[in-house]
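SUBJECT: A protein chain and its fold
Encoding: whole-number codes for local backbone shapes
Chain under study, with its fold:
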Amino acid sequence: MPSRRARLHKPIIRLIGKGLARQTNPKGMRTFIDRVSRTLLPARGVTIAGGMLGPSRTLEISASDSTPTSQVLMFHGGGYVFGSPEMYRWLAGRIARAADAQVNVPQYRLAPENTFPAAVEDGLAAYRAMLERTAPDQLVIGGDSAGGGLSVAVLQAAQAEGLPMPAGMFLIAPWLDHTGDAEGAMPTVDTEILILPESVIRSSGWYRGDHPASDPGISPLLGSLDGLPPMLIQVSDNEVLYGESVAFADQARAAGIPVDLQVGQDLWHVWHLMAPTVPEALASIQGIGDFIKSVTGSTSS
């Protein structure tokens, strides 16, 4: 059973999900989410600086009272339609503190102004730039929702170029299959309370443009997982993307990849954003920090 604080948050999250589903154009989605994001509580004790990764402006976020021991490339969520480094700076800051890492959050191009493969191109350029400044065994890649799917797509593209893999990858409720064919995909509206089917379908269409949903660059669940790094996947058992996460974890394990699949009980999509008020959010963020430390060798596993 979720904590009392999580239960108290659920009616609010449900209202946000219904409000998002009512937005029938990208501008409306962006305006609505921008207003919601202003209510997120700041992370304390973090330093935020601007930078560039390839063509993308980036926020570089680290703990104010320590020197980073590793580097993280984190792609923000938002259905490939909305989201920004600024919107995700507090989640990135909490991950930075939990991992003793510098978290780099680039702004990739958004749809529908820039359809696939623009986000993957920007993500791959950012990954190349990170490799120029960081040893692969001290680098972790990750993201939430669309940012999680983008993380996988970027590494698949990097493999095709012969680039080295990072030490690990963390995925928070990743969006991995735009075909909707994953077992357990698209549960009822009463089960998913934040990213309702209407929002998912609209965002996918805007992102894909004229490309088929089955393109592995769009649906990395359908691509090759061979050679990907160890991964942590966190997802709630009642959300739209749960089935994709389980299918991806199974396929990755079959490919010989170490996978830690952590399933939240009766929460919502990316509950991590509700830190520090929801204890499950803090615990999951600490789990990401422990994973980053483990795969980069900055602490014992």
Notes: The chain has one domain: 4-296.
